[in-house]
Design a protein that fits this description.
The protein is mostly helical and 69 residues long. The protein has a domain of 35 residues. Helix content is 83%, strand content 0%. The longest helix has 57 residues. The protein has 1 helix and no strands. The chain is rod-shaped.
Length: 69
């Protein structure tokens, strides 16, 4: 194996630290994006259920009342 100078080893260590830092940032960004997408999906589902409930309530109000005679 080729001997490395101290300068090369310091540079290699710096590159390794930088790569670890970048992968940590990418992982954090990915986790945050997944959490936001999940929250958005839940909000859309809640909004859709509220809209369907409101639409059903409005359709019942639009129907004329039936007389009992």
């Amino acid at each position: 194996m080729k001997r490395r100078t101290a300068r090369q080893l310091v540079r290699l260590l710096s590159d390794i630290r930088h790569a670890v830092h970048c992968s940590t940032l990418r992982a954090a960004a990915t986790n945050r994006a997944m959490a936001l997408a999940s929250a958005e999906r839940d909000a859309d589902a809640a909004g859709a259920s509220e809209e369907s409930t409101e639409a059903a309530r409005e359709s019942r109000q639009d129907k004329p009342a039936r007389s009992g005679s």
